[in-house]
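Bug report (template v2)

What were you trying to do?
Predict the complex of my protein with magnesium ion.

What happened?
Run completed; filing so the output is reviewed.

Input:
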Amino acid sequence: MNRSKAQPLIALLLSDLKRARRHGGQSLLPLVFLFSVVAMIPLGIGPGPNLLQAIAPGMIWVAALLSGLLALDGLFKSDFDDGTLEQWWVGDQPVIRLVLVRLGSHWLITALPVIVLTPVAAQMLYLPNAALGLLMLTLLIGTPILSLVGGLASALTLGTRQGGALLGLLIFPLIVPVLIFSTGAVSAFLDGLPVRPYLLLLVALLVLALSLVPLATAAALRLNIE
Amino acid sequence: MNRSKAQPLIALLLSDLKRARRHGGQSLLPLVFLFSVVAMIPLGIGPGPNLLQAIAPGMIWVAALLSGLLALDGLFKSDFDDGTLEQWWVGDQPVIRLVLVRLGSHWLITALPVIVLTPVAAQMLYLPNAALGLLMLTLLIGTPILSLVGGLASALTLGTRQGGALLGLLIFPLIVPVLIFSTGAVSAFLDGLPVRPYLLLLVALLVLALSLVPLATAAALRLNIE
Amino acid sequence: MWTQIKLAFHKLGSPLIFYRFAQTLIPWLWGLTLITLAAGLYQALFVVPPDYQQGDSYRILYIHVPAAWQAMATYIVMTILATITLIWRIRTAEIMAMTAAPIGAAFTLICLVTGAIWGRPMWGTYWAWDARLTSMLVLLFVYLGIMGLYAAFDDRRQGARIASILILVGVVNIPIIHFSVEWWTTLHQGSTINLFGPSTMDASMLPPLIWMTVAVKLMFGALLLQRARNELLDQDQRKKWVLEALRMGGHDS
Amino acid sequence: MKPYLTANQVSFHRHSEAVFQPIDLELYPATICVVTGANGSGKTTLLRTLAGVLRASEGELTRDASIAFIGHRAGVKDDLSCIENLVFMQRFYPKQANRHPLTPHQALKQAGLGPYIRRLAGHLSAGQRRRLALAKLLVAPADVWLLDEPYTSLDTHACQWVDELLDGHLSDQGAAIVTAHQRQPSLARTLHRLEVVAGARAA
Amino acid sequence: MKPYLTANQVSFHRHSEAVFQPIDLELYPATICVVTGANGSGKTTLLRTLAGVLRASEGELTRDASIAFIGHRAGVKDDLSCIENLVFMQRFYPKQANRHPLTPHQALKQAGLGPYIRRLAGHLSAGQRRRLALAKLLVAPADVWLLDEPYTSLDTHACQWVDELLDGHLSDQGAAIVTAHQRQPSLARTLHRLEVVAGARAA
Ligand code: HEM
Ligand SMILES: Nc1ncnc2c1ncn2[C@@H]1O[C@H](COP(=O)(O)OP(=O)(O)OP(=O)(O)O)[C@@H](O)[C@H]1O
Ligand SMILES: Nc1ncnc2c1ncn2[C@@H]1O[C@H](COP(=O)(O)OP(=O)(O)OP(=O)(O)O)[C@@H](O)[C@H]1O
Ligand SMILES: [Mg+2]
Ligand SMILES: [Mg+2]
C-alpha cells in the first residue's frame, strides 16, 4: 500500500481518536465501566475472596464486552446522520479498508484500556497472578472479534434506526462462543487442565472474523445508504 | 389535571411507545440481555447451584441496570437532534411533566419487561422462590430510580455529544447505593435477617429521586438547549 | 429591598472586586496555614504518646480525618455556590464552585489513600467493600463527574451551570457518608469525636487533630481563592478589568 | 388592539457577549415581520428567544398569544410516517379556542404530500420534509408563527403555497415573523422589516 | 476532449420503480449543468447516483475524473472545530495531481469563517455550516463538483462567493452539476440545463 492510499486511512484513524478524546475521553468510559462492574459485583454478591476469584474472569470479560457494546451505537450512526458516511463511496476509496480502520479505532478506544487495566481489576477480585497473563491473552485475541462482530451488527441495523434492539439479538449468538472459550481457558488453567485447545479455537475464530466480517460490513453499509 | 393539559402528555407517551416498538422492539433488548447474562454467567463461572444462587440477585440487577443504560443514549438525544426537544419550551408546556412522561416510557420499555421475566431468570439461577418476591419488589422500587438518575445523566451530557462516556461516570456513583440496598435486602433475607431497613431506604431513595430529579432534568435540558 | 439585595450580591460577584479581595486574602491564608500546620504536625509526631493498641501507626489519623472532613466540607461549600450559580447566575460563584471540585477530589483521594494505608495494619486489608469506604469512593466519582461535565462544555458558563445541577443532586451522598457507620455494620469505626458533647477519644489525642483540621480548612480557603482567581484571569484575558487589575498590581510591587 | 408580542431592548448573551444587538419589536395581529441579516448575525437566536426556547439575557419580552416555531431543524420525527408525525403534533400542542385546525389528512393534501401519507419522514426528500414541518401550522394553529427560513429547499410551487399560508394566516388575525435570505414572502401586504446585526465581539 | 462524466439512460430504482425518468448527460470540462425539478422529483437521487453513492439500476455511467459531492446533509462533523474539519477533509480525499488545494486556513478565510476557526462545527449557524461544507471544495479540489442546492441558507454575500467559486472552477477546466430551486448560479457563461422528472409511480 503506497503512501497516498494510506493517507485517507490515517486521516480517519486520527480523527476517530481525536473525536473520542474530545468526548471527555471516550476511552474513560470502558474503564469507569470496568471498575463499576468490578466494584458492584462484590457489593451485589458479598465480598468473599473465593467467590470473587471464581467469577473474576467472567466479570472482566463481561465488562470488556459491555464497554464495547455501549460504543457500538455511534460506530457508523453519527457518520450516517451527518452525511460523511456516504462520502466513503464517492470516487473509488477502498471502503473495506475504511471499515477496518473504523473497527480498529473502536478496539483501541474501548478494548485496549480495559486490557491495560485488567491487572488492577484482577487484583481487586483476588485473581491469582499466574492466571492473569492468560486472561489478558484471551482478551487480546477475543476483543477484536467483539469489535468485528459488533461492527457488522451495527452496520446491519443502521438504516432501520433501531439502535440497540436488533443489535443485541445479532451480536449475542456470535459472541457467546468467544466468551465461553475465553473464560473456559482461564478456568481450565486454574484447574490445571491444558489451555491450548481453547486458545487455538479463539485464534481460529479471530481469523475467520477478520477475513469475512469487513467485507460483509462494507456491503451492509452500502445497502443502508441506498 | 384537566383533560386538555393531559393530552400532550398522552400524545408523548403513545408516540414514545410506538417508536420503541417500531425499532424492532426496543424492549426486546433488555430481555435478550437478561438471558444472555443469565446464560453466560454460568458458562463463565461454572454451574454450581450454590454459587449461582449467591450471585443471582446481583446478576439480575446488573441486567436490569444495563438494559436501562443501553437505552439512555437516545433518551433525549434524538429529540435534541431533530429539533423536537426545543419545542418543549415553546409556549408554556409543563416541561417537568413531559420529562416525567419520557422517563416513564423509558421505564416501561426497559425495566418492566425485565421485571416481568425475572421469575424465569431466577429459576435458571436456582434462586429460592421465597426470595423471588422480595427481589421483584426491590426491582419494582429500584428500577424507577435507575430511570430517573439515568435520565438526569443523559440530560446533563446532552450538549456534549459524549454519548456514553460521561454518562457512565455520572450514573454509577448515583446508582451504586440502589444496587447495594436491593441486593443487600435479598442477601439479608437469605441469611434470615430483617429486610425492612433496606426496603425503607430504597423507598426513601425513590421518593428523594422522584422529587428532585425531574426538576433537575428539566433544568439541565433547558441549559443544554441554550 | 429585594433588588437591593440582588444588587449587593452582584457587586460581590464583580470580577474586579473579587480579584482584589482574593489578592489581599491569599497571602494571609497561606501564612496561617503554615503556622497551624507546623503546630499540628509537631504535636502529632512528637507530643502525643503512642497508642496503647496501635503503636505509632495511628498517627496517620491526623491526616486521614482532617482530609475526610474537608472532602465533605468542600462539597457542602460547592453546594452553596452551585445554588447561587443557578439562582443568581453570578459568575464568581460559578467559577469558585468549579475550581473547588478538583480540591475536593484531592482531599477525597488523600482520605482514601491514608485510610487504605491505615487499613492494612488495622483490618488486615487495604480495601473492603463496606458502606463508608464505598460511599467515600462514590464521592470521588461524583467529584470526577463534576469535573468531567464542566470540562466537556465548550462554553464554560454553560458547563458551570449544568455541572451545578449535578452538584445539587450529588449532595445526597454526604449524609450517607456521614451516617453510614450508623446505618450499616461496617469495618470502619463509628464517630468518636463529637463537637457538641463528650468525645470518646482520649483528650490528649485531640489538640493536634484540631490544629490539623484548622490548617486544612485554611489551606482549602487559600487554594480555592487562588485557583478561582487564576481561572477568572484566564477566562477574561482580554477584558478591560484584567488589564486594569494587572496594571494596579504592577504599581504595588 | 394589544400586540401579540413585545420585545424591549431584548438580547441574548453567549460566553457573556451579546449575540445580536438589542432588538425592539411590537408584533400586532395581522402583521408580518421579515427578519434579515448576514449569516451568523443572530436571526435564529432571535427567533428562539422570541419563541421562549432561550431566555432573553437582557431586556423585556412579553408574549400574549399562542406561538408556533419552526426552526432550521424541522422538528419532524424520522421514524414516524408523515401522518403519524402530524397526528402527534396535533395532539401535542394545546388546542387554541380561537383557531380552527385541519385534520392531518387535509393538511398533508394541502402540503402536496398526499401520495406519501404512510412514508417514513426519514425517507422524504429535503423539500418534502420541509413541507411536512410546515404542515404543522395547519394541524396545530397558533396566533404567532415564527418561521426560520421557511422557503429552504422548497420548489416554486411550494414557495407559493407558503405565501398563501401566510396570507390566509394574516387575514385570520394571525401574525408572523419570518427570516429569509434568498426568497422573501411575496404578499400583497406591507412587510415590516427587521435587520439583525451581530453583537459586539462577532462584528 | 473527453467528457468527465457520461450518463446514458441512467436511472435509479427503489422498490423496483424508477425514482426519476432515465437521464442522458455528457459533462465536458469547463461546463456547468443546472438540474431543476419539483420537490421529490429525484434530483438528489440523481446526484448521488452520479457521485457513485448509489449504483445506477439501469443505463450506463462512466466517470473519468475526480469527484466531489456535497449533499443536503453537509458532511461536516459537529464535534470537530472548523479547522479540524477541513484538515480532515484535506487528508481524507486523495490528492489530485492536476489540482491545487488551498490550506485549511486560506479556505476558511475565503469562506468568511476566519473568526470561527476554532469554533465547533456544531455551534455554527446554518449558513456558516454550509460555508464550511463548501470550503471542502477548496482544500480537496476535484474535477467535477456535484452540488446539491449549494445556495441553501446562504446570505447574498455568500451566494456571490459560490458563484465566484464556480466561475473559477470552470476557468480551471473543472465541471459542475448543481441543483437549485430558488437561486440559480449567475455566471457569465452558458448554463446547461437538465430537468429531472419523477419516475412513473410518483408522478
Ligand atoms: C480507605 C479506607 C477509609 C476511608 C475511605 C475512610 C473514610 C473516612 C471518612 C469519610 C471519615 C469522616 C466521617 C465523618 O466525619 O462523617 C473518616 C473518619 C475517621 N476514620 Fe476513616 N476511612 C478509612 C479507613 C480508616 C481506618 C483504617 C481507620 C482506623 C481504624 C479509620 C479511622 C477513622 C477515624 C478514627 C475517623 C474519625 C471518626 C469520627 O470521629 O467521626 N479510617 N474516615
Ligand atoms: N451553540 C452555540 N455555541 C456557540 N456559538 C453559537 C452557538 N449557536 C450559534 N452560535 C453563534 O451565534 C451566532 C448567531 O447564530 P445564528 O444561528 O443565530 O445566526 P443566523 O443569523 O441564524 O445565521 P444563518 O443565516 O446562517 O442561519 C453565530 O455566529 C453562531 O456561530
Ligand atoms: N430512503 C428512501 N426511501 C424511500 N423513498 C425515498 C428515500 N429517499 C428518497 N425517497 C423518495 O424518492 C423521491 C426522490 O427524492 P429526492 O431526494 O431525490 O428528491 P429531490 O428531487 O432531491 O427533492 P428536493 O427538491 O425536495 O430535494 C422522493 O419522492 C422521496 O420521497
Ligand atoms: Mg439561522
Ligand atoms: Mg434534494
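What did the reviewer find?
DSSP finds eight helices and no strands in chain B. The mean pLDDT of chain B is 82.
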